[in-house]
Amino acid sequence: MNIFLVGPMGSGKSSLGKKLAKSLDKKFIDTDKEIEKKENKTINEIFENKGEKYFREKEKEFLINIPNSLNMVIATGGGIVTDQENREKLKENRVIFLNASVERQSKRTSRSNKRPLLKNVDRLKKLGELYDQRLKFYKDVSNFEINVDKYKSKDILVKIIEELNENN
């Protein structure tokens, strides 16, 4: 069974995912990075040239083709939960929701220009809208939720590992 990390952009899915995979001696993959490799384009380029709908199709295609038996740690894009089939696939695995405040998301994403949904918009407002739209989906698919605002990275990792061990 795979362990998926879901949550809004800037919640730490990729950075925590790498650390979690290392701690559990599992392979780590990031769905956004895998899509970039397959398309030979950055997420920004995909959004600019082919649009969000195309990206979501590629995201779904990638997710659906991941065997549940691979036993990996997988960081997902923030919007992966917006599709019903994606949610069903996620629920077949362990899913950890990294919940982050809009302020934290804004702080963590402000250092990057690799966020196509945040281009030329009021960052805080857009992050708030996305969070409000997706929160119910994150909660629906997850087995465990952790508020990443409350803990340091190493403590989040410990809490996730404890949860995985308790509910193995």
3D architecture notes:
There is one protein chain. The chain has 168 residues and is α/β, with parallel strands linked by helices. It has a single domain (3-159), classed as Rossmann fold (3-Layer(aba) Sandwich). Helix content is 55%, strand content 12%. It is built from 7 helices and 5 strands. The chain has helices at residues 13-24, 31-39, 43-64, 84-91, 102-109, 123-141, 153-166; strands spanning 3-6, 28-30, 73-75, 94-99, 144-147. Strands 2-3-1-4-5 form a 5-stranded parallel β-sheet, sandwiched between helices.
- How far the N terminus sits from the C terminus, by CA atoms, comes to 10 Å
Work out the helix count: 7
Q: Which ranges are low-confidence, i.e. pLDDT below 50, for 5 or more consecutive residues?
A: none
Query: Percent range for helical residues?
Result: 40-55%
- What topology, given as strand order, has the largest sheet? 2-3-1-4-5
The secondary structure category is alpha/beta
Number of domain units? 1
pLDDT averaged residue by residue: 90
Rg computed from alpha carbons, rounded to a whole number of angstroms:
15 Å
Give the tally of β-strands: 5
CATH class, named Alpha Beta
Return the string of H and E elements.
EHEHHEHEHHEH
User: CATH superfamily membership, which one?
Assistant: P-loop containing nucleotide triphosphate hydrolases
Give the overall shape. globular
CATH fold category name: Rossmann fold
Instruction: Bin the strand percentage.
Output: 5-15%
